[in-house]
Design a protein that fits this description.
Elements (H helix, E strand, L loop, with lengths): L34 H34 L5 H37 L14 H6 L7 H15 L4
């Protein structure tokens, strides 16, 4: 067993996780990000999680306000129902994004950020910088989408 590094990952006899001895990849982990990039991604994910929480709270508050309004005529009631449904949809979409963001933050803490949650292969630096909440490599994502498409067409 090697020593545990400052970020909680285990170092093997002075080598990084990819088996290198340093050089230009020093400080990079399996996610391919330099320490400064990793910190920037973490900061971005934390800010996004807070923004999404506020968005969800605001949508829930607006929906509660709509419910609290006094009796409405049929036309107003129909418009209120549409507004409430739109707020619920927006809140649900924000919750899905929040769940993905929180999961990415968890992977950062656990040291698995940048690895596909299905096959454990690296996602790649460019993908992580573009989509920091990505959990699947492109091959696994395509495989899931194809499986979902075959199930929706009844092709089990």
């Amino acid at each position: 067993m090697g020593d545990v590094r400052r970020d909680g990952q285990e170092a093997q006899d002075g080598q990084d996780r990819q088996g290198g001895q340093g050089g230009q990849d020093a400080g990079r982990e399996h996610d391919g990000l330099a320490p400064g990039e990793r910190e920037a991604v973490a900061t971005e994910l934390l800010a996004e999680s807070e923004r999404l929480r506020l968005e969800i709270d605001a949508a829930e508050e607006a929906e509660a306000q709509l419910r609290a309004d006094c009796a409405l005529d049929a036309a107003d009631a129909g418009a209120e129902n549409v507004s409430r449904e739109q707020l619920r949809d927006r809140s649900a979409e924000a919750q899905v994004r929040l769940d993905r963001t929180v999961a990415a933050l968890g992977r950062l803490r656990e040291g698995t950020f940048g690895l596909c949650t299905d096959c454990s292969r690296p996602l790649g630096r460019e993908r992580l910088l573009a989509v920091p909440t990505a959990a699947l490599c492109l091959a696994c994502r395509r495989r899931r989408e194809a499986a979902a498409g075959s199930h929706s067409r009844g092709g089990g």
